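A student in our group prepared the protein record below, which I am reviewing. I have pasted the whole thing underneath without changing anything:
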Amino acid sequence: MKEALKEAKKAYDKDEVPVGCVIVKDDKIIARAHNLKETKNDTTNHAEILAIQKASKKLQSWRLLDCDMYVTLEPCSMCAGAIINSRIRNLYYGTKDEKTGAVGSVFNLLEDYTFNHKVEYQDGVLQEECEAILKQFFKQLRKRRNK
């Protein structure tokens, strides 16, 4: 998760919502990404989607079997669906997203529905650190908007 936090910092420095993600296979990071939604003007450029694309390219397969994902913020429904469809084995995330989280906060796409692939998950991994960067980002954003 510390590597995902490094990616979140890159997003923060680009004035993007600071979410970072890494994908690991055989104890090695095979993909890393951070949000680029604002930079690319593309709503699908979430850290998880970009990391899945990079991992798929590296493995030359859309099936990310035996891969684990670490992401600083609970995935939204788009990302949770991509995680299921790419066959990620385990998902570890840092902090909940009470507004759009689809792995326990608003609903749980990984548990509440029956799909052909089951993703195991754990939340609260380095939660304080993952929460802190998001809180700092939005505090700064509100400050700039109120000037």
